[in-house]
Amino acid sequence: MELFLTLVSGIAWTIVYVEAIRLGLRQRTYAMPVAALALNFAWEATYAVNDVRGGISTQGVVNIVWALADVVIVYTFFRYGRAELPAFVTRPLFAAWGVLLFAGAFAVQWLFLAHFGAHDASRYSAFLQNLLMSGLFIALFAGRGGAHGQSLVIAVAKWLGTLAPTVLFGAMEDAPFILGLGVLCSVFDLAYIALLVRDRGAGAAAAQQRAVVRTPPVPSR
């Protein structure tokens, strides 16, 4: 069961990253909230290196795959993210802010590691930043005024990718803190999914309305 849930999480999150890369390059944007992206990249890089030092495991391989995928998503942020900011944020200022943000994310991960040790730090930081990401996806939708750079594939895969370790680490290992954070993630993830479904329905209705308006009337006889 542990291996199954680990694989579910690994596959689901890999789908999130692949879809984020596809959308980011196609729509010339970044498809993951940047604060969550920075923390995710720092987490995956940190624990990929940590796992390699201790011997390759299933989760270690997954972490390496995720870290490599994150490199591309980070590229989309630095390539296209400046366009979504006010004009006074110059390209050098944007680059400096981005570097500071990612450096801060690595510092946070290393502080967790130093204080809690690898076992607890990897779980506490992962679920806390996952909850942050769940909220930030909703904020991203609101800030962009719609689903630009977002998709149901990302939303559903993120939910399932978080639900699996919630069951594994929270329920099966009887860790109330992890379980509580995982349940909160699901609440926000399902709310985000509902937003995207509603937006898709509204978009389909608007397209249908435009098609009706553009249809020329049939002349009467």
How would you explain this protein's 3D organization?
The protein has one domain (2-214). The mean pLDDT is 90. Helix content is 83%, strand content 0%. With 221 residues, it is mainly alpha-helical.
Annotation keywords:
0% strand; mainly alpha; 83% helix; 221 residues; globular
Topology:
Layout: H1 2-27, H2 34-54, H3 58-80, H4 91-144, H5 152-172, H6 176-214
Helix pairs in contact: 1-3, 1-5, 2-3, 2-4, 4-6, 5-6
Kindly summarize this structure in a few lines.
The chain is mostly helical.
Secondary structure tally, helices:
6
Cα Rg: 20 Å
Q: Quote the distance from N terminus to C terminus.
A: 71 Å
Task: Note poorly predicted spans.
Answer: none
Principal-axes shape call: globular
Average pLDDT taken over every residue = 90
Structural class: mainly alpha
Characterize the largest beta sheet: strand count, sense, and whether it forms a barrel: none
Proportion of beta-strand residues:
under 5%
Q: Give the fraction of residues assigned to helices.
A: over 70%
Oligomer: single chain
What order do the helices and strands follow? HHHHHH
